Every structure is written in C-alpha cells, then in structure tokens.
Task: structure prediction
Amino acid sequence: MIAVNQAYQRPLAAATKPAPAANPVQLVVFSLGTQVLALPVGQVREVLRFSPITPLPKAPAFVEGVLHLRGRVLPVADLRRRLDLPATERNDHTRIVVLRKRIPLGLIVDAVQEVLTVPAEAIQQLPAQGGGVLRNEYVAGVARTGERLIVLLNVAALFPEE
Result:
C-alpha cells in the first residue's frame, strides 16, 4: 500500500480561495462646487430638497437657521460656510443632507451625486508627513475610486455635540 501525504489532498477550491475582503463601505457622495465630499450612509438620516429656512438671531455664521420637518424643528447649517468656501447661488440641485445625530442637523450642499459602495481598503487617512500641513480634523479620510478621490468628512469634528 502506498502512503499518501495528507497535506496535498485538500480540495483545489480551498487552496485557491481568495482571502475574504473587508466589509464594503457605503457613502453618500455630494458636491460643494468642484469638491467631491462624502459621509458614511450610517451618518445620514435622509436627503431633502432645499426649502425655505427661517433665520435665527445670534446664531453662528455657518448656521442658516431652522426649518419645520414633519412636526419637528430642524437646525440647518451651510456646509460651504462651515468649511470657509465661497457662497454660490442655490438652484434645483441644492439639497439638505440630514445627519443622524442625537439632535438631527441639516447640511446644505450643492448637489447629492450618488450612494457609492467602496471597499474599506480604498479609504485612507491623510498622511501625517509634511510638517502637519495635511492634518485636518475635519477630514476622516480619502476614498479612491478609479481616478477619483472623495474626501470623507468628520462630522463629529465639524459639528461637535455639547
């Protein structure tokens, strides 16, 4: 009887099976001018068409005001102002992205482009080199999809809950 080395008897499928990929991440991708930004889907409650907003006296400069949403008052912030970007005219593409927070908050963006699924490994942190030039507490990471780079925002740093 011939002895068979058991190590060579595993099924071919098991030997060639690729390592499991990390969980994919779904992003709500939107724009502010030419900048393409995103938030994880889990941080977004809903996306609304732009509607009139009631201004609030003595509010921070980036707070546009409040609007009435299904019986509740929703504070709304202008993301352009919060990121120190120049103002633009609002149009039919302007949207309010409602964040899923303890106190919901609406963010005015120029347009919502898509919900995109990317592999977790496609998201990278900003490099810490360059004397801290690239360090930015408002950026959670950068996702690369093909030739496109999408900046993921850090909502907790942009709008801390007190």
